[in-house]
Amino acid sequence: MSRRRVVVAPDSFKGTATAIEVADGLAAGWREVHPDDEVRCLPMADGGEGALDAFAIARPDARRMPVTVTGPDDRTVEAHWLLLPGVDGTEAGGTGVVELANTSGITLLNPLRPLEAHSIGFGQAIRAALDAGVDRLVLAIGGSSSTDGGAGVLQVLGAQFVGVDGSPVPAGNGGLGAVVRASFEGLAALPPGGVTVLTDVTNPLLGRLGAVTVFGPQKGIGEGLAHQAELNLQNFATLVTDARGTDPRESGTGAAGGVGFGLVAWGATLTAGAASVGEEIGLAGAVADADVVLTGEGRYDHQSESGKVPSYVRGVARAAGARVGLVAGAVQSTPRDFDAVVSLTDLAGSGEAAMAETLRWLREAGRRLAAELG
């Protein structure tokens, strides 16, 4: 058979392998079976951890820009944002990509801080990109540690939230209930090319589908704290809505503990994460002449068809006439319209075994897909 063109475009397997590691493992397994094939790795993301890596691999001219920020537990974090240079190769006219996960993410906390964690560090990294003169911002907001409604980000950008005595309120969700006045007079202007926010979450800010109810438990907001945390967020939302007209019912405002809401109040636009990342890194062009496209995620379940990386990549691949293979750490819902499906749990014999040696089983998955689709 003639030399095949294969594109490997998975999401990360959260907690066990980055998108780069997943792509490399699958590619290595495929090459063992078909060493002459042209295999290109193009790791994907849905707006959470790994977005910077996806952009960096797709854009060889990208530059990692170091920045020191205040982490969600007030400790110093050495982070970075990504500069995609403009046509003249400089910051001016370029795009800044900033990831919440490496500045204010939940993996930076041990232990969790249910009411005290904040998004200040993310705001500081955004500010650094603005100060560098970028023309446009792309913000990936998955993996947050806090439920502060984006107050931390907005404060760094120039907003003020004060209590009854006129002094700033404490950072985090716990301080939101004490806010009596919100001022946006000093809020930084959006960059000329605007701000695009990547998220795979469509939840509103408040209520039974909101940030506290749905995502609070993973951030330590148990039943004993949930009611007060919701009241705090509601108080903050009312003041911001009065000042900026931001609707907390809007889809995605509950993303990242309400950072989505705060960014909309700034003037940013929320977009579906996987599709936006794919568009930004040129996935459609990469698979235009591909014979096979491999994708995957850690857990394929009922949410996977709602704009997650595998369903998005499958759609792009089908439009190009390519066959599509899916790899998942665990398959918990029947996959639709894939030409081949491999579960690492099935390969390894158990979920524990798959997680213990994820890279080994990814390579084996690559071999299995090569045998079936090659």
TrEMBL record:
InterPro entries: Glyc_kinase_flavodox-like_fold (IPR018193), Glycerate_kinase (IPR004381), Glycerate_kinase_RE-like (IPR018197), Glycerate_kinase_sf (IPR036129)
Gene Ontology biological process terms in this record: organic acid phosphorylation
Cleavable signal peptide: none
Domain of life (superkingdom): Bacteria
Keyword annotations from UniProtKB, A to Z: Kinase, Transferase
Pfam families assigned to the protein according to its UniProt record, in alphabetical order: Gly_kinase
MF GO annotations: glycerate kinase activity
PANTHER family referenced in this protein's UniProt entry, alphabetically: GLYCERATE KINASE
Recorded family membership: Belongs to the glycerate kinase type-1 family.
Protein's recorded name: Glycerate kinase
Organism in which the protein naturally occurs: Herbiconiux ginsengi
